[in-house]
Amino acid sequence: MTHHPMHISLYVTPGADALARQAAELIIESCEQAITQRGTFCIALSGGSTPVTLFRLLAHPEYAHRMPWSNIRVYWVDERCVGPDHEQSNYGIARNELLHRIAATKFYRMKGEQQPEDAAQGYDALLRKHFALHDTEYPRFDCLLLGVGADGHTASLFPDSDALKETKQLVVAQHVPAHPANRLTLTLPVINNARTIIAMASGRDKHPAVVRALSLLAPHNLPIQQIMPHTGRLVWVVDEAAARGA
Ligand code: 6PG
Question: Any residues with Cβ below 6 Å from ligand 1, and which?
Fold first, then answer.
């Protein structure tokens, strides 16, 4: 139960390129705010294909110059259990498309090449240290990017999985019905503690999941419906195909 108003906005863009531009503007805005208020910007990235256009855009000089990269810390929302150079590595994709093109970024990846339980524990410990957390606290990312699957998964939180109930661990290892099947993922309380969550969806196959996510009073049985920021805001950026299903 939430006891405060939820701050949700929705942008519908003509296509995937406009979606990436809108997301970039939101990231820059959230970065400016974080830098002004706290001096650093902590962002957590998701994987999948949707953010690739966004990563390329942010790497473009026109955008790259608008962000103080030496004061930015990059983390991950989830990772596939593969090595950093594997084509399915979420870290690897972000590195190739964005991070390697920008000097002075600090980035902290989930170690997909390790034993999943060890990697989850390792990232949990890293977050507790970086955010100087007490036992029952959650990290507060300034900005966190999410995608959504046609089945309603988000991050590597899949429908009916145990991970959805996790409240103690910040990061868990998961075996999921997707490829690659072994994943590491932030847990719901961590995701929902972010200041700004940007959820992106492109393409008509995402339409049913987006409709469910935005039907705020419907039973919350899909992971994407459980994205409800505790005190932050949730911004949906979807293209027309995802918005209309046509
Ligand atoms: C991952 C994700 C995942 C992704 C969705 C959407 O590592 O796969 O973080 O939650 O965001 O599956 O993926 P697409 O953008 O490829 O549709």
Answer: 46-50, 77-78, 90, 147-149, 153-156
